[in-house]
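In response to a reviewer's request, we include the raw inputs and outputs for one of the modeled complexes. The two entities were modeled together in a single run.
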Amino acid sequence: MSRGNTILKEEKVFKDPVHRYIHVRDRLIWDLIGTKEFQRLRRVRQLGTTFLTFHGAEHTRFNHSLGVYEIMRRMIDVFQGRPHWNEEDRLLCLVTALLHDIGHGPFSHSFEKVFDTDHESWTREIIMGETEVNAVLRRMGNEFPREVADVIEKTHPNKLVVSMISSQIDADRMDYLQRDAFYTGVSYGHFDMERILRVMRPLDDQVVIKSTGMHAVEDYIMSRYQMYWQVYFHPVTRSAEVILNKILRRAKYLYLNGYVFNQAPTHLTPFFEEDISIKDYLKLDEMIIFYYFQVWEEERDEILADLCSRFLHRRLFQYVEFNQHFIMNEWAGLQERFKAIGIDPDYYLDIDFSSDLPYDFYRPGEEEERMPIHLLMNDRRLRELSRASDVVEAISGKKRTDHKLYYPSDILHTPGQENEKREILEILSG
Amino acid sequence: MLDQHVNVLSLLQRVGEITGRKKFQKIVFISKKLGMPFHEKYDFHRYGPYSEELSLRLEELQQFGFISEIKEEKAGYYQYRYQVAANGEHFLKAKGNDHETFEHEKNVIQAMNACSSKFLELVSTILFLQPADKEEIIRKVHMVKKTQKYSEQDIDRAYAHIEGWRKAINKGS
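The model returned the following C-alpha cells for the whole complex.
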C-alpha cells in the first residue's frame, strides 16, 4: 500500500531520550507529524497530574506517540519476510501507532469523568472529520482514514494489525512503560525491549513470543506491575486528580447555575453545555486549562478559588485507607460533620476507587475477554504465559483494588471548632 | 458518591442473579447505550465491548461484601454467578435505593438477562458500531465476529430487541 506515499529523499531523524533516534522515511508519516492536530499533542502531558509527584514527568503525548511509531517501525522490521506478515499493512501499522493518542485532551482522565466524553471517540472524529490529519490520510485513498480509525478502535478485521498496537504486549505499552520510567526517574519500568522485539512473531491474528524470550517478557510484566503501583496509582498523584476533578465539577456547576465568572470560560463553555465540536475540542490543551485555573484562583466563589489554589500550589488533600466498615458505619456521619464545620463534603471529601483509574494489570482468564500473551513453543504449540512462567503466575490475578479517602487535612488543623474537628480526625484515623 | 457502585448493585438486585462475567459486561453496556446512568468506559475486545472499569467495580463490590461471586467449574472453563449479598441489600437500603432504582427499566433488564451471552454479544457489538448504517454494521459484524457465525435472523432479532428495549425505556420517561 504505497499509493499516496513517497519515500523522503533524506531520512528525517528525531533525537529521543528513550529510543535514542526515531527514524522517518515516509512522506505520509512526516506530513502527519506536521499537522496541527498532531502538534497539539506537544501541549498535553502524557501522565496528567503525575508531575506533581514526580517532577520529571513533564513528557507529552507528542513524544510518546513518536515513540510508539518507532517501536512499531522496529516490529515491522522483525516481521518483514515472515509468514503471516503482509507488507501491504506496513503503512497502516505505522500510521495507527503514530495517531493512536490523537484524541487525548488535557488531563484526559478527569475530563472524561466530568464531561462524559471519551478520547477514543475524539480520535475517530479527528481521523475521519475535517482536519489536517484527515486530509493527509486521504492521499492514501478515501477509505484509508476509516481503516486507521477501525484499527485504533479495535474493530478492524485484521486482528494481527490491531494486536500490534493494542494487546497485552504492544507498541503502545512498550513505549509508555519505558518512557514513564525514564521521565519519572524510577528504576522499575525497565525491560529488555530489544530482546522482546527479536522474539516477537506474527501468527495468524496475533503477535506471539518465541518461548526462548519468556524471561524478557516476565521482566516486562513485572515492570508493568511495579509501575502501576509505584507510579500510576501513587496516592499523591491521585490526590491531585481528585482536586482537578472537583475544580472541573465546581466550574461546571457554577456555569450551569448562572454564575458570572470574572473571565468568561469561553474554551470550556461547549463542555459545560455538552455541545462540543472538533474545533472546540482541539482548542483545549493544558496551557489553556492552567490559564483558567490561574484566573479562577481570583474568583469570588470560595470553593473554586480554593481548589484552584490547591492545585496550582500543590496544597493537596491528605488520605487514609478506606474500607467496607467505613462505608457502612462512618461515611454518612463524616459528611454531616464536614457540613457542620462549614466544609462542603461534595468538594472536600472524596473516595478514590481503583475502578476510577485507568487500569492495566496482566490478567489471564476473565473468560478470555482480554487476549493473553501466548508463547510459541518449540513444537509450534501455543502456551499462555502465566501457565509457563511461575513469576507471572505469582502476580496474576492478585489484589487489584485499592480505595482511599481524601480530605483537606490543613483545614482540620486550623483554629476554630476544635472539638468538632478533633472528632472528624478521630474518625479518619480509625 | 458511590453512585456508580450503587447503579451496578441496583441492576443486579433487579434481576436477582447474573450468570457469567461476559453477560454482566454486556448487560451493563447495553443498558448504558439505552440511556441508563452507567459511565463505565468500554473498549472493543475479543468478545465485543468490554469494560475493565466494570470488572474492577465488581471486584470492589465483592471486596466490600456487597455482592457474592460464586465460581463454578464447567466443562473446561470457569463460570461466575453474581448475587447481591446481605451487606449489599443493607447498603442499598441505607442509600435509600432499595427497590427504587431502575424500577422503570426493570422489565428490560430482566429481558436482557434472559438472553444468552452470545446473543448479548451480538446486540452489544451492533450498539458499539452504531451510528453507522445497518448495512455497514452487518458487514462489520460478519467480519469482527466471524467465529460466532451469526445468521441474518440473529442480526434481525438483535435489531428488533434493541428497538423494543429502547421503546420500553422511552415510554413514560
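As requested, we also summarize the result in words. The two ends of chain B are 24 Å apart (CA to CA). The longest helix of chain B spans residues 152-170.
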